[in-house]
UniProtKB/TrEMBL annotation, chain A:
This protein's record includes keyword Iron-sulfur: yes
Keyword Metal-binding: yes
Taxonomy of the source species: Bacteria, Pseudomonadati, Pseudomonadota, Alphaproteobacteria, Acetobacterales
Matching CDD domains: Radical_SAM
Cofactor(s) for this UniProt protein: [4Fe-4S] cluster
Protein name per its UniProtKB record: DNA modification/repair radical SAM protein
Domain Elp3/MiaA/NifB-like radical SAM core: 58-285
Organism encoding this protein: Roseococcus pinisoli
Keywords per UniProt: Iron, Iron-sulfur, Metal-binding, S-adenosyl-L-methionine
Xref: InterPro entries: Aldolase_TIM, DNA_rSAM_put, Elp3/MiaA/NifB-like_rSAM, Endo/Exo/Phosphatase_dom_1, rSAM, rSAM_sf, RuvA_2-like
UniProtKB/TrEMBL annotation, chain B:
Superkingdom in the source lineage: Bacteria
Native species: Roseococcus pinisoli
Pfam (any one): UDG
Stated name of the protein: Type-4 uracil-DNA glycosylase
Domain Uracil-DNA glycosylase-like: 309-469
InterPro entries assigned: DNA_repair_put, DUF4130, UDG_Type-4/5, Ura-DNA_glyco_family4, Uracil-DNA_glycosylase-like, Uracil-DNA_glycosylase-like_sf
Cell cycle is among the record's keywords: no
């Protein structure tokens, strides 16, 4: 008996949840108030709901089908898995997107798919969905489209015309890791596809000679995802790969997805999942690289095993290893150094720089910024505070480390 | 005597602005003003609501203040009007007050602003429209019930108008309502009552919500910080949360205990087909190029995007060898397409050589770089990498069979001769290579780009073009043979 739409939605959303990204930000501004159609995008994204896993739901994230000819060990949809299979027609995805959008459940579509028949055939079906949405229904909401690495350039070109963001997952931090867990995927093909996307995105962001009008191609750029903890790669290796990906392909984001147990898992996978904290630390390190002026090696140099400290955030870990650079005088230090103080975010640093023009900053001033004084005190000098020898204490790490959690009886 | 201002409503920004202007003109200090929204706090005592006589110059404020005040006025804190008046009064003397991010009044106002923006943001996220019956041929109609913490309905309504332009909708709240009818937006501060709403599409949404949740990574706190329980009453999906959390341990345990099952039949068919597929059978240069794509002779392949193989006709009299692909070449997969490639193309034109007739390649076929921040900086290949990649160059030469090879830069000379030599000793002279063709050495075009002095660059560019012209002349001379 054919499955109902609802049954297939259950299967194809379950199959899509291992893609961490749900971002809907950073695209051009569009709206439907004057030009007709449905939907808008305005700079920052909106998370319409949160699941109990703490992840935001801003897009309808589904697969067109979870049939797949690949056998990637970490994937729930690999061909050797006994998971239930289903497929949507392109019209069904269009209908679901529009009806969900009208009820304000979501603000766009994230469409991915298992590979069926060939890369081109799969990509063609996906492009059909977004073409329908944009041209037939005047849909102006956000669209994130997964692009299939070996798909033909003409299809990618068309996808970029309709999608806000395109992404291709590198999946594994190293080529060797990919070769062992995803034998059909080719690392070079994935990198070539990302390079081609970067080239197209940059071309489109420059005004053309003739019209000055920008040609449209994935205005929200491209992103990728790496699975953490399914192979041996340590955090230093993972972050070095991220650094190269940012540098080589101008990615907006690299997502880290802690390898998570799946039903009917492959025996090629490790039996233990990595702690969720590892993924969190990687995101923090990624932030330090992108917004705080840290180099990748600086962040991962602290430990010989190349892992980030699970108990300490990477900025605090760096500061403890570089005590000679502290304390930092809040009233004098340059922006670059203020950004390295554990407990100061980019907003606090901006506020400090603005306020310094008015008067000398005291501890209570920082308290008003909702900065944790306990955290920053050992590392800073203000008009009324000098940490004396606190920074030299051997047990400073222990003082700042979170206390061991008290176990409770069941 | 104290002054009392009665505003038209809870978030009456225009009224507040007019009253504040009058009070500032009258020189009334903040502590002498009582602010009332609508009928709130009506007293039986006589109130002084008359504007004071103007004694001060017209007040001025920076635009940033208006933006701040328009948000703050929506807050439900009764002290907001007085706080804003105190700020605007201080701004008359302290022009740059707002940039003092740690001033107590500024901090207080920013805090209210943040709460309002957050509430407005949550409204854009958590309003749930339910479809209502519509008249034949009319636009589709949707109704929502929402309970905001602050007076944000009018402030947030334009967002919904921009987003849902092609349907009629109405958002009802205890703090007023907004609606779009045939494209016309209207808002009211009149409290609304909760309507009875139902929509069968909610079923599909609940299905989606339950299935997009990953039980293997339960993080209830993270969810609650962004979707606090106070919003749950109006979110249909929130009803599922307790059960989803309760079932988690059992679902995770079931996954862990599940035994590996035999793969489905189609998997075995797919595997059989994959092993039966023939590998590439291309021959000659095309076959070599295909083979080079997956080269792992040295570690450079891990960091580069792709092998950048030579380009040109299958047979060519002239072959050009550079150092290695750069940033652009790595992305596009073609040799000499970046800035150095442009210098090279220009020089070829000047020398009268059609690039399409020459075979253009590099000594090393993968890009080697060092990451500085988010930029990739070129690094020269070391002798081991050159040595590994010479094999490909040898294959290319054997197939293309050039009469003359132009070696651009030291690395190319090393790859072609097997010896590190000073470029200055060889430059511009045609000489024999051990096996077969003649070689003419010159500088690499990127050397010209790196010269800081414009005059030196000009002179060197001329010399580079002369070297290429010499190569052309040598090839067109009837009896060319290399000097021994």
């Amino acid at each position: 008996m054919p499955r109902s739409l609802r049954e297939r939605l259950a299967i194809l959303s379950d199959a899509a949840k291992y893609d961490a990204s749900c971002a809907s930000s950073g695209t051009e501004r569009r709206d439907s108030s004057k030009s007709g159609g449905l939907g808008s995008t305005e700079g920052s994204g909106i998370c319409h709901a949160y699941a109990p896993d703490g992840r935001c739901i801003s897009l309808l994230k589904v697969l067109l089908t979870n049939f797949c000819i690949y056998d990637c060990a970490y994937c729930i949809n690999r061909s050797s898995s006994n998971v239930e299979r289903a497929r949507f027609t392109p019209e069904e995805v269009v209908w679901l997107t529009l009806e969900f959008y009208r009820r304000n459940y979501i603000e766009g579509l994230f469409l991915s798919s298992g590979i069926i028949r060939s890369s081109d055939h799969t990509m063609e079906e996906m492009v059909r969905v977004v073409r329908e949405l944009r041209t037939t229904h005047g849909f102006r909401g956000y669209i994130h489209l997964k692009s299939i690495p070996e798909a033909s350039p003409a299809l990618i070109e068309e996808a970029g015309l309709y999608a806000d963001r395109l992404s291709i997952n590198v999946e594994m931090p190293t080529d060797a890791g990919l070769a062992s867990l995803a034998p059909e995927k080719r690392p070079q093909g994935i990198r070539r596809a990302m390079a081609a996307l970067r080239t197209k995105i940059e071309e489109a962001s420059e005004p053309t000679m003739r019209t000055r009008k920008r040609q449209r191609f994935a205005p929200a750029g491209q992103s990728t995802q790496m699975i953490v903890g399914a192979d041996e790669a340590n955090d230093a290796t993972i972050l070095a790969t991220s650094g190269r990906l940012y540098g080589s392909y101008g990615l907006r984001r690299v997502y880290y997805s802690g390898f998570s147990p799946i039903p009917d898992a492959s025996s090629r996978l490790p039996p233990q999942k990595p702690p969720l904290m590892r993924e969190h630390r990687l995101y923090q390190a990624d932030w330090l690289f992108r917004f705080y002026g840290f180099g990748i090696e600086e962040i991962t140099a602290a430990r010989p095993d190349g892992m980030l400290d699970l108990d300490l955030d990477p900025k605090l870990a760096w500061a403890l290893a570089h005590r000679e650079d502290f304390p930092v005088d809040v009233n004098r230090a340059a922006r670059e150094m203020l950004l390295r103080v554990p407990g100061f975010g980019t907003k606090a640093v901006a506020a400090i720089l603005a306020t310094r023009r008015h008067r000398r900053i005291r501890l209570e001033d920082l308290g008003r910024l909702r900065v944790s004084l306990a955290k920053v005190r050992p590392f800073i000098v203000t008009a009324d505070w000098t940490p004396l020898t606190l920074i030299d204490r051997d047990d400073l790490g222990a003082l700042l480390r979170p206390p061991p959690e008290q176990l409770t009886l069941l | 005597m104290r002054h009392t201002v009665r505003l038209g409503g809870a978030a009456d920004f225009a009224g507040w602005r007019d009253a504040a202007r009058d009070l500032l003109l009258g020189g009334i200090p903040p502590q002498e003003v009582d602010w009332r929204a609508g009928d709130a706090g009506a007293s039986l005592l006589e109130e002084n609501t008359a504007p004071p006589p103007p004694v001060m110059p017209p007040p001025r404020v920076p635009p940033a203040f208006l933006e701040l005040a328009e948000a703050v006025i929506c807050h439900s804190d009764p002290a907001r009007f007085g706080l804003l008046y105190r700020l605007i009064a201080r701004l008359q003397a302290e022009r740059h007050l707002l940039s003092d991010a740690m001033d107590a009044d500024v901090v207080a106002a920013r805090r209210l602003e943040k709460a309002v923006r957050r509430d407005a943001h949550k409204m854009t996220a958590f309003v749930r429209f339910r479809e209502a019956p519509q008249a034949e041929g009319a636009r589709r109609r949707f109704i929502a019930w929402f309970e905001p913490e602050h007076h944000i309905v009018a402030h947030t309504a334009p967002f919904f108008a921009r987003r849902f332009g092609d349907m009629d909708w109405m958002i009802l709240t205890p703090r007023g309502s907004a609606s779009l009818t045939d494209g016309t937006l209207s808002v009211s501060e009149e409290p609304a009552r909760k309507p009875d709403l139902a929509d069968p599409t909610d079923e599909l949404w609940l299905t989606y919500y339950a299935n997009i949740f990953n039980p293997a990574r339960l993080k209830v706190k993270a969810m609650l910080s962004e979707m606090p329980k106070k919003y749950w009453a109006n979110l249909p999906e929130a009803a599922l949360i307790p059960d989803l959390i309760a079932q988690t341990p059992a679902r995770v345990a079931a996954m862990a205990e599940q035994e590996m099952r035999r793969p489905p039949l189609f998997h075995e068919r797919l595997q059989a087909r994959a092993t039966a597929e023939p590998t590439s059978t291309a021959e000659g240069l095309a076959g070599l190029r295909e083979e080079a794509r997956s080269c792992t002779r040295c570690p450079l392949h891990c960091h580069a995007t792709q092998t950048v193989f030579g380009e040109g006709p299958d047979r060519a009299e002239l072959m050009i060898v550079g150092e290695q692909p750069g940033d652009h070449e790595d992305l596009q997969g073609r040799p000499f397409v970046g800035p150095a490639g442009q210098v090279f193309d220009e020089a070829m034109r000047h020398a009268g050589i059609d690039r399409g007739t020459a075979y253009v390649t590099n000594a090393v076929k993968h890009f080697k770089y060092e990451l500085r921040g988010k930029r990739r900086l070129h690094q020269s290949p070391n002798s081991a990498e050159v040595e590994q990649c010479r094999w490909w160059l040898g294959q290319e030469m054997a197939l293309v069979r050039p009469r003359l090879v132009v070696a651009m830069g030291r690395t190319a000379v090393l790859a072609l001769t097997g010896r590190a030599q000073k470029l200055a000793d060889l430059r511009g002279r045609v000489q024999a290579l051990p096996a077969g063709p003649a070689m003419l050495a010159t500088v690499h075009p990127s050397y010209l780009l790196r010269l800081p002095d414009a005059r030196a660059r000009e002179q060197e560019t001329i010399r580079f073009r002369e070297d290429l012209a010499a190569a052309r002349n040598w090839l067109s001379a009837p009896t060319s043979s290399p000097a021994r």
